[in-house]
Amino acid sequence: MGPAQRGQFKVPTLRNVAVTGPYMHNGVFARLRTVIEFYDHFVNPTARALNPETNQPWAPPEVPETVANELLKVGRPMDDRDVEALECFLKTLTDARYESLLGDDTTCAD
């Protein structure tokens, strides 16, 4: 891979995303909710100052020159209910044959 490809990776589909962890290109997050909170921390830095999996500040990017910082700051901050709703929506993208892998989470009950 040449310098022009530094930091690039192929983005997978969201289909079955709730059962395909670990998440991110390097598998750094174990939970889907953490991915949502990671993206929210750019517009909600006070409420999402810490990675919930490590209880530490979010790690810096591996290739900082490829991060679209201004685009990541666009949007409104999410509260915990918004995060939960988005996670529940993403779980609906799971094929029926993999639904058993979602576990007994009652958070997303109808």
Structure explained in plain terms:
The chain is mainly α and 110 residues long. It has a domain at 34-98. 23% of the residues lie in helices and 4% in strands. The protein contains three helices and two strands, in the order αββαα. It has helices at residues 32-40, 69-72, 80-91, and strands at 50-51, 56-57. A two-stranded antiparallel ribbon has the order 1-2. A hairpin with a 4-residue loop joins strand 1 and strand 2 (56-57). Helix 1 (32-40) crosses helix 3. The termini are far apart.
In short:
The protein has helices at residues 32-40, 69-72, 80-91, and strands spanning 50-51, 56-57. The chain is mainly alpha-helical and 110 residues long.
User: What is the helix content?
Assistant: 10-25%
Figure out the total of helices. Answer: 3
The percentage of residues in β strands lies in under 5%
Number of strands: 2
In the predicted model, the low-confidence regions spanning at least 5 consecutive residues are: none
- Which overall shape is indicated by the principal axes computed on the Cα atoms? globular
Question: How many strands, what sense, and barrel or not for the largest sheet?
Answer: 2 strands, antiparallel
Strand order of the biggest β-sheet = 1-2
Task: Report the span from N to C terminus.
Answer: 46 Å
Mean pLDDT: 91
Radius of gyration: 15 Å
